[in-house]
Amino acid sequence: MNPSLLTAPPSSRPCPLVSFPPFGLTPNSLPRRRRYRVSFPRNSISTDDQSPMSTSSTETTATTPTAPDIFGGPKELTGIQPVVEKLSPPLRVATSVVILAGALAAGYGIGLRLGGNRNAALGGAAILGAAGAAAAYAVNAAVPEVAAVSLHNYVAGCDGPEAVRKEDIENIAQKYGVSKQDDAFNLELCDLYSLFASSVLPSGSEDLRGDEVETIISFKNALGIDDPDAASMHMEIGRRIFRQRLETGDRDGDLEQRRAFQKLIYVSTLVFGDASNFLLPWKRVFKVTDAQVEIAIRDNAKQLYASKLSSVGRDVDVKLLVSLREAQLKYKLSDELAKDLLMEHKRKLVEENISVALNILKSRTRTVGGVKQAVEELDKILAFNDLLTSLSNHPDADHFARGVGPVSLVGGEYDSDRKMDDLKLLYRAYVTDSLSGGRMEKNKLTALSQLRNILGLGNKEAEAIILDVTSKVYQKRLSEVFQSGDLEMADSKAAFLQNLCEELHFDPQKASEIHEEIYRKKLQQCVADGELDEKDVAALLKVRVMLCIPQQTVDAAHSDICGSLFEKAVKDAIAAGVDGYDADVRKAVRKAAHGLRLTREAAMSIASKAVRKIFLNYVKRSRSAENRTESAKDLKKMIAFNTLVVTELVADIKGESSDTPTEEPVKEDVEKLYEDDEWESLQTLRKIRPNKELTAKMGKPGQTEITLKDDLSERDRMDLYKTYLLYCLTGEVTRIPFGAQITTKKDDSEYVFLNQLGGILGLTAKETVEVHRSLAEQAFRQQAEVILADGQLTKARVEQLNELQKNVGLPGPYAQKVIKSITTTKMAAAIETAIGQGRLNIKQIRELKEAGVDLDNMISESLRENLFKKTVDEIFSSGTGEFDEEEVYEKIPTDLKVNSQKAKGVVHDLARTRLSNSLIQAVSLLRQRNRQGVVSSLNDMLACDKAVPSETLSWEVPEELADIFGIYAKSNPAPEKLSRLQYLLGISDSVAAAVKEMGDGVLSAGAEEEKFGCDASVLLDDDDSSNFTGEKSAGPNANSLRGFEVIDAIKTQVESICPGVVSCADILAVTARDSVVALGGPSWTVQLGRRDSTTASFSNANTDLASPLMNLDELISLFSNKGFTAKEMVALSGAHTTGQARCLLFRNRIYNETNIDSAFAKSVQSNCPSAGGGDNLSALDVTSPVVFDNAYFKNLVNNKGLLHSDQQLFNGGSVDSQVTTYSNNPITFYADFGDAMVKMGNLSPLTGTNGEIRTNCRKVN
C-alpha cells in the first residue's frame, strides 16, 4: 500500500450530520454527546483503548458476540432526562406551555408587587418568562438525548445484533417525536453502527469468514441508517486504523494494520455495492490508488473463495458446483482467478494421491500388495478426473464454478524436472499392473492415456515406458510358450505370435526386434568355440522358424556376429605382415572363413574393409613423404604388401591355392584400348604390359578384387599413379653434398609394379591412358611453349615440334591441339596488347579477319567495345568534319561484333561531349595563333553535330567566336559546313560578312604585343575605369587561379617593415618555393631583385599558357617557344601533384577516352556528371592531393591522369621514359623540378629601372 497512507488525513468528519465543536467552547453550550465513540476491529486496538466487548480471535471465529459485548451495558438518565422520559409528546407541549405561562404570570405579579406599576410588572413578566422559556427549551432539548439513550438501551438489551428490529427503532423515534434529523439520535445510530461494524470485521491476523457483508447489511437495515452516514462510519474506522498504524512501532503490527485496512476496503465495497465508488473516497482521503483498492478486493475475494474450496473433496456434484459459482459472484472474484483457484485445489487433491502412491512404491518395507495399493491411489485420480470431465460437458456447465475439467499437475509440486522420474515410476507401476494378467484390456489403454495426460508425460516418454514393460512381458510370454510347446504345436507360428502381440497391444515390429535379439544371443552361444557345426545350424534353424525371422535378418546377424570373429582372424593375418603369413595363419583364415559359414561376398567385404584401411595408411605415408622418391617407395611397399599378403588372404578366403594362376577377366573396352593406336603410341603405356620373360621373372601378379576405388576420388587415385609413373621415368634420385644428385635408372620391372598399383587403386584402362597421356602432353607443352615463345610457327619449328612429339610419345592429334592452343593464346595476347596501346585500328582488324584469324574469340567483349569507342573518337578528332553513318552505325559494329544499339549510344555520348570540347580547343588554338588547329577543331565540332544535331553554343567572349568563324571561312569550306558552323556559333549574317572581309587580321592583331615574363603581371586586377583587362580573367586563369589574398597579406607585412624595396614578383617567386617546401617538396635558391610590370597582357595569357586539351607535340612546342626542353616540361608538369581542376576541362577524358583506368574514371564521374556541374572540382592527384611528391607520375603510369594533357605525358610517346624515371625516383624529380623552377623564375625579368616596385600588388603605383 502507498506509504502516504500512514499520514492521517486533515479535517474529515465521521458523519455529515456531526459537527465537532472547537476546543474553546464550554460544555454548557453543547449537547452532552460531543463526538462518536467509534469502535475498532478486535485485536487491532491498543490495550488502553480496547473496548470491553473485544474477544479473542478464537472466540470471534467460533461464535457471534452478544449485544452487551458489542455495545456495552445500559445507560442511565440524568438531570431532567428521567422527567422528560415520562412525558409523552403532547404532554411535553402542554408542560412547556404551562411552564411558560406560569413564569409569565409569576413574573408579572412579582414585578407589579415590587414596582407598583405596569412597566415593572411587564419587566418581571419578561424576566421570568425568559426563564420559563429556557426551562421549556431544556425539556424539549433533552428529548433527542433521551431518545438516544432509549435507542442504545434497546439495542444493548437485545439478545444479539440479529435481534434488532427496524420496527422497534421506528417506534422509539415515534415515541419521542424524533428522527434522524436530530443530531443526538442520529449520532447514536452512527455510533451503534460503527461499534457493530468494528466488531464484525476481523483483525489483521484473522481471515474473513464470508458472512461479514450480510451481517453488516442486515444490521444497517435494521437501524435504518442512511448509506452516506454508514459509509462515513466505514471511513472513520479507516482513520482509526491508520492512527493505530502510526502508534504501532513494530513491523508485524504495521503489517497487521495493513491487512485490517484491506479487509475494511473489501467488506465496505461489498456492503455499498455500486454506490461504493462515490460513498467511499479511499483515493481522496487515504491517497489509495485504484490499483491498491483492486488488490484489496482481489486478495480478500481469493481468500474467501479458497476457504470455501477447502471443504470441497472428490465427491463433487452439480449442486456443489452451482454453490461455488454463486459464492464466486458474491465475493466479486473474477472468472480467471476463480478458475485458477479451483484448478489449484484439484491439483492438490491429486497430489495427495500421488504422494501416497509414491510413498508406497518407495517404501523399503513394501509388501507384495504395495503396487496394488499405489495403483488404487492412481485409480482414485482417474475416477476424479472422469467425474470432472463429465461435469465439464454438463448442459448446465455455464452455471458451474469456473475451472471444472480434466486435472493437470502444471504449476504444482510435481511440475518440475526433478519430479519427472517419480511420475514415470507411477506410470510404470500402472502399466505393470495393467499387464499383470498377461494381456492389456481396452479400458486400461484408455486409463493409461488419461494418466499420461494427468502426469504430464510426453508421448515418447510414455511410449518408452509402455514399450519397456510390454517387451519384458512379451519375452516372458514367449518363454512360457516355448517351454510349454504351445508355439511349436501351433499350425501357424506367425498367427500365434500375431495374436500374442494383439493381446498385449504390442507393436509387431518391436516384437520382430525381440525375435532378432533372441536369435543373436543364440548365435553367439553357438559360435563361442569359433565355428558352427551341424547341431548348431539345426538349433538356429529351429529358432528362426519358431520366431518367423526373415532370412535377411538372419544373414545380417551372421554377418555381424560371425563377421566380427572373422574380422579378428583377418586382422591377425594382416598383422603377421609380409614375413609372418605362414601355414598357421593360413589355416586360421580358412577355418574362420568356412567354419563360420560366411558367404564369400560377406567374407570378402570384411577382408576388404581391413585391407583397405592398411592401403590408406600406405597412401597417407606416401603423401606426407619429403620427395617424390620417398613417396614412390611407400607406394612400392603397398604393392609388395598386396602381392605377398593380400593376394594370399584372398586365395584362402576363396579356398584356392595362391600358386595356381588365375585368368583375370579382361573387359571388352580394355582390349579395345590395348589394340588402339593411342595405347601403342605411348611408350610408358606399352611398358606396363610385361612380356612373358618379365612376368616369369617378377613372379605371380597381385590380386585386384580389393581396391581403393571407393575410398579415394578419381583425382587422388590418378595423382598417386602419376607419382609412381614419374618415379619410373626419372629413376631414383639421391642427393649428395654440395648440391649434386645421383639418378639411378630403373629397368622395365618398375612398370610392372606400376600396373599392379593401377589395379590396387582401381583405375580403369581409360583412366590409366589419361594419366600417361596427360603426362606426355604436359612434357610436350612445356617444351613447345619455349619453341613458340613469340607465337610464330615456322617450318623449322614444325620439324622441332615433330621430333619432340616422338620423344615424349604423344599422339599426333593431341600434339596439334597443344600447338594450336599455344599459338592462339600468344596471338590473342599480342592483339589485346596492341589494342590496349592503340597500335591496332579498325583497318588492321579487318585485314586480320580477312586472313582467317578468329578475332571474335581472341578479343574480349569489353576490349572490342573500347576499340569501337576509340575508333569513333578518332573519327570525331580527325579534323576532316566527315561522319559516315553507315560506316559508324553498321559496318564497324559488325566487324567488331558490338551490339548496334549499344554502339549508337556510345556514338551519341561521344558526340555530345566532343562537341563542346572541340569549341574549347578551337578557342585555345586561336589564342595560340594556330590557324590550322582552329580549322581542324571546328571540323571535329561539325562532325559531332552531324552525328547528334546540336543547338546554338554559347561562349563567354563572343569576339573569339567571331575570330574562329573568320579563320574557318578563309579555309574554303563547303558552303553547307560554313552555314552550319555559323548557326552553331550564333554568328549573325552581318557579323559573318564583316568577319569574311577582315582577311588575316585576326591572328596578326597581337603580333607586336610586348613579351612578358616573371614580372607579377598576373596579380593586376581589371580596371573598368581605364579600360584595362588583366590576365586574371584570361581563359586558362579564370575560376582557376586562387590565393591572391595570401600575396596581399604578405605584401602588407613586408611594406610595413621595409616599404618600397621588395617587389611583388619576388614575393610570388619566394612564395612558390616555400609553398612547395611546406607540402613536403624540394627547395631551391630563388634569385631576387625582380621589379614589377606596369601592365599585363590578356592575349598573351590566352595564347602562352598550356591548354588541358593539348596533345604531347603541342605541349612540347609551347614550352619550347619559352626556351624549355621536353624534360623540363615534364618536370614542371609535376606541379600537378597538388591543385584541382574543373569538371568542364576533363569531362571528355573520363567519359570517352580509352587510355584511362576504369575504376579511376568511375570514381571521378561521381563528382563530374556527363551533363552539368562544369565548375565541380576534382584533385589533379587523387593519391596525395595535399602532399608534394611523385604520386602524380605514378598515377600517369597507371593511366590515372585527370587531364588529357596530363596523360599525354605517358601514352606511348617520347617522354614515357622520363615519366617512368620520376615515378620510380622522387629524388631525381625533386632535383629536376627545382632546376626548372629556377629557370622559370628567370624568364624575362624586369630589372634596373624597368618596371616598378608596387605598393599594392593588385594595381600599379
UniProtKB/TrEMBL annotation:
Superkingdom assignment: Eukaryota
Cellular component, GO annotation: TOC-TIC supercomplex I
GO biological process, one term: protein import into chloroplast stroma
Co-factor(s): Ca(2+); heme b
EC identifiers of the protein: 1.11.1.7
Top enzyme class: oxidoreductase
Keyword Oxidoreductase: yes
Cysteine pairings via disulfide bonds: 1064-1257, 1143-1168
Substrates-to-products reaction catalysed: 2 a phenolic donor + H2O2 = 2 a phenolic radical donor + 2 H2O
Biased composition (Polar residues): 41-50
Domain Plant heme peroxidase family profile, chain residue ranges per copy: 1013-1261
Family: Belongs to the peroxidase family.
Its job: Removal of H(2)O(2), oxidation of toxic reductants, biosynthesis and degradation of lignin, suberization, auxin catabolism, response to environmental stresses such as wounding, pathogen attack and oxidative stress. These functions might be dependent on each isozyme/isoform in each plant tissue.
Name this protein carries in UniProt: peroxidase
Lineage of producing organism: Eukaryota, Viridiplantae, Streptophyta, Embryophyta, Tracheophyta
